Structure formats: structure tokens, C-alpha cells
Amino acid sequence: MMQLQEISDRFEIQQLMVDYSTAIDSRRFDDLERLFTPDAYIDYRASGGTHGNFPEVKAWLADILPRFPAYAHLLGNFDLKIDGDAATGRTMCFNPMVLSEEPKQVMYCGIWYVDEFIRTADGWRITRRVEEKAFDQII
After folding, report:
1. CA–CA separation, 98 vs 106, rounded Å?
2. Under the phi-then-psi rule, with left for phi > 0, alpha for psi from -120 to 50, and beta for the rest, what region is 37?
3. Distance of CA 126 to the CA centre of its chain
4. Are 98 and 69 in contact (CB under 8 A)?
5. DSSP label of 16
6. How many CB atoms sit inside 10 A of residue 16's CB?
7. Model-level pTM?
8. How many helices and strands in the chain, by DSSP H and E?
9. DSSP state for residue 96 in the 8-state scheme
């Protein structure tokens, strides 16, 4: 049976993931500052993106994502392993992205976020994120 601390940790990490999706989908890239550690490593190459440290990738997101007319993130299958003040996770993300309005084209992306987390004085933060591709299809 899970202890109260583990239940709380799981909810907090899941909320961290939702907050990430909300920040990205709302184009509020500065909100990412409270979700990642300053030295976090991020690798979005599986979906055609970049990789590097958090400040570089945040700047890249702020430059690239506004070029898409619309996109959304839907998360599920949170597979979390918590070990004291550290955790790992693998979370499914369904991420449709509108590529063009006329003609209407949408790319349907399925990816896994493979993450490492750390508990800080300000709560859980992502220290490492690597995408794994599940599928993509342009329609």
C-alpha cells in the first residue's frame, strides 16, 4: 500500500507535467522557469526538435512554437518511480499540431516523455527530459 507521502509526491509530479503542458499550449514560455531546474537537460530530437540545457531549449521553444497556428498536449499513462527526493517517469503525450490553415494540415504526434525529477525547496522539478517517438502522421 502506498504511503501518504508517495501519494502526495505522485500528484505533485503529475501536476508538474500538466503545468508543463499548460505553459506550452498557452505559449507562456516563462512559466517553464518554475518547472525545470536551471541546469536541466532536454532532448526533443525524437520529434524533430533540438536538445541542450534548459535556457537554450526554452529560447528555442519560444521561437519555434509560435510558428504553429495551434497545438495541444494530452498526457496519460504516468509511470512514476519515486525514490526519496528523486524520481523517474515515463509519460505518454498525444500532441496534435496544426501545420497550416490552408490547406488544413495537422500532424498527429505520439511521444513518451522520459523524465528525471528532483524535489527542491520549491517542490518537484524536472532535471532531465528526453522524448521517445511513438508515432506521427500528417493528415
Report:
1. 4
2. beta
3. 9
4. yes
5. H
6. 19
7. 0.95
8. 2, 7
9. E
Helices (H), 26-121: 54-64
Longest dimension (CA), the chain: 53
Structural element, H or E, at residue 59? helix 54-64
Q: Grid cell 535556457 — which residue?
A: 55
C-alpha cell at 71: 497545438
pLDDT tens for the chain, 139 residues: list them.
Answer: 989 999 999 999 999 999 999 999 999 999 999 999 999 999 999 999 999 999 999 999 999 999 999 999 999 999 999 999 999 999 999 999 999 988 999 999 999 999 999 999 999 999 999 999 999 999 9
